[in-house]
Design goal:
Layout: E1 2-3, H1 9-18, H2 25-35, H3 49-58, E2 59-60, E3 65-71, E4 77-82, E5 88-95, E6 100-103, E7 107-109, H4 118-121, E8 124-127, H5 130-149, H6 176-180, E9 189-194, H7 204-215, E10 227-231, H8 235-244, E11 248-252, H9 258-264, H10 273-284, E12 292-298, H11 306-316, E13 321-327, H12 341-353, E14 357-360, H13 378-383
Parallel strand pairs: 1-2, 6-9, 9-10, 10-11, 11-12, 12-13, 13-14
Antiparallel strand pairs: 3-4, 4-5, 5-6, 7-8
Helix pairs in contact: 1-2, 5-7, 8-10, 11-12
Bound molecules: S-adenosyl-L-homocysteine.
Length: 384
């Protein structure tokens, strides 16, 4: 049985052609599943009864399940998604002024062992399928839409902002400003970031197919600038990605020299900075307005000195780089601490003075362990 969630438009078209059907059936079914949220073949009324029957015999739409939901004081949502009896992952929805961002996972656990990341402690179970990746977007969108639809009629007016006290997905708070622009009847999730559990570039094919669906106008129709793939920098895969997709790339840099990066991200021994930075130059070649985001976790007395900042300026010179400083999020069994706000500010000022767009990321959802590097699929751990 093929799971239709695993298929992007190209594969779904081949599937229908193999059944002796016209290619346009693919776009019809993509709309049913991804835009209308319908996973019951009988409800796909523009397909003939005979075709619906054949689909039931040859295909399925196998959707993972949300088994736990938590809401942070700042409105951030975290869902635990059960994939099969042994595996679950976490995804996070971050409401923002302009709708919201979904942070998706690409693997159960992670094999890369970055020293400052909670997911690494869990070890690596397996890659997610394309269906399991896109299902996160489907589940989050459907859940949020259903919550909005269940609001009392007065708050459902298209033009009316949703009242924070009535908004289920922001019910634990969120400032008025944060809530005011989330409106009913429109796609809630506008941005997707691959910043959940796992290293997306070591699950290349499935991640690319899922991104195809995210960008596809018959599915989610997200703009390519609103889908971001965050990676430690698996150099050959990064270069391959240039040929496949022009989504935003975020590089988890975290150190300006190999000695330190070798310690923090052991994968650096395989793909040292010289190769990684060269790959970044290749990525932007011929693409005028393209920027690359660099993520830099601020670890107290490890990578946060002015000398580190100056070395970073030197390393990134000549690249259209946007730098995100991420205050370290603490988790059990870590010896690292977050750099002080003053140190982060001093670090940022050096980067700004050198002309780099630099943002200090807000810690969203850290009270429910939903912030960067805190995702671990805990229920699974407990069961073990
Ligand atoms: N494997 C991918 C995506 C997952 S993590 C990657 O490494 O890019 C998303 C971001 O959170 C990465 O930049 C990661 O380095 C950062 N991160 C991991 N643990 C963190 C922690 N404890 N505090 C802050 N950021 C963390």
């Amino acid at each position: 049985m093929v799971n239709l969630l695993d298929l992007d438009q190209e594969l779904l078209t081949s599937f229908f052609v193999s059944l002796g059907e016209k290619p346009f059936r693919a776009t019809q079914v993509l709309k049913w599943i991804h835009q209308l949220g319908i996973v019951d073949f009988d409800a796909m009324t523009n397909l003939s009864k005979a075709l619906r029957q054949r689909l039931k015999e040859n295909a399925c739409i196998s959707m993972p399940q949300i088994v736990m939901s938590q809401t942070s004081l700042d409105g951030t949502r975290k869902w635990l998604v059960q994939l099969d009896s042994n595996n679950s992952i976490e995804m996070v929805f971050i409401p923002e002024d302009d709708r919201g961002t979904l942070c998706v996972s690409s693997q159960v656990g992670c094999a890369l062992n970055c020293r400052f990341c909670a997911t690494a402690q869990q070890g690596f179970n397996r890659n997610l399928t394309t269906g399991e990746i896109i299902a996160q977007l489907w589940l989050a969108e459907q859940t949020l839409q259903a919550e909005i639809a269940s609001l009392p009629p007065s708050s459902k007016e298209e033009t009316q902002p949703i009242n924070s006290s009535q908004t289920p997905f922001l019910s634990n708070g969120g400032t008025k400003e944060e809530n005011s622009s989330l409106q009913k009847g429109k796609q809630v999730i506008r941005n997707v970031v691959f910043m959940g559990m796992g290293e997306p570039l070591t699950n290349f094919n499935n991640v690319c197919k899922a991104m195809n669906l995210m960008l596809n106008d018959f599915a989610y129709g997200l703009s390519k600038r609103r889908v971001s793939l965050s990676t430690v920098g698996i150099v050959p895969a990064l270069l391959r990605l240039k040929e496949q997709s022009s989504v935003n790339i975020a590089i988890s840099l975290h150190a300006p020299n190999d000695t330190l990066r070798d310690q923090l991200l052991p994968i650096n021994k395989k793909y040292p900075l010289r190769e990684l930075i060269a790959a970044c130059h290749t990525l932007i070649k011929g693409e005028k307005h393209r920027q690359i985001t660099f993520e830099y976790v601020m670890l107290k007395e490890i990578n946060d000195s002015p000398a580190h900042a100056k070395a970073l300026v030197k390393l990134l010179r000549g690249l259209p780089a946007k730098i995100n400083l991420i205050p370290f999020n603490i988790f059990p069994q870590t010896d690292y601490q977050c750099a002080t706000p003053e140190t982060i500010e001093r670090f940022r000022d050096i980067l700004l003075a050198a002309g780099f767009v630099t943002i200090t990321r807000k810690n969203r959802g850290d009270d429910i362990d939903a912030a960067c590097g805190q995702l671990a699929g805990k229920v699974l751990d407990k069961k073990r």
